[in-house]
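ARCHIVE CARD
CATEGORY: sequence design from structure
SOURCE FIELD: tokenized fold
FIELD CONTENT:
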């Protein structure tokens, strides 16, 4: 049912944890299943993401997609990170079963929420980025 890559990222998730004084932090939740994902980004003065970490309280697919999402945004500029959609994350994982596609949306939303936080703190506008629908704090 799950690709080898999904299993690998589920069993050995990359970049789990927190970043102290992160440039941007975003927390999103899936109202249907109650799963929560928090993304931390460390962004340098050139707008390049040097580090990305996550904490996910959720299903295996949510863990695997957050892990892959952090791997994909690392080293990218903020603008490039905007192109890391849930589709891109799923492709990098060699797909997800149809019933698990919504889990990958959390990863995209978490990236956007963290970028939004960064944009607000630095007073900048990131093309195509909208205010996240919800920002929850339940992992505190
Ligand atoms: Fe909730 Fe996967 S079932 S994110």
């Amino acid at each position: 049912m799950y690709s080898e890559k999904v299993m690998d990222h589920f069993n050995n998730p990359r970049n789990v944890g927190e970043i102290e004084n992160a440039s941007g932090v975003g927390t999103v939740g899936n109202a249907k299943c109650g799963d929560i994902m928090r993304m931390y980004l460390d962004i340098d003065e050139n707008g390049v993401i040097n580090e990305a970490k996550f904490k996910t309280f959720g299903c295996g697919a949510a863990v695997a997609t957050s892990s892959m999402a952090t791997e994909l945004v690392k080293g990218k500029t903020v603008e490039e990170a905007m192109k890391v959609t849930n589709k891109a994350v799923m492709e990098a994982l060699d797909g997800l079963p149809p019933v698990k596609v919504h889990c990958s949306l959390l990863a995209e939303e978490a990236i956007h929420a963290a970028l939004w936080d960064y944009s607000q703190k630095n007073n900048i506008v990131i093309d195509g980025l909208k205010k996240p629908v919800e920002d929850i704090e339940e992992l505190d």
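CARD ANNOTATION: The chain has one domain: 4-122. The longest helix spans residues 101-122.
SHELF: design records, drawer C
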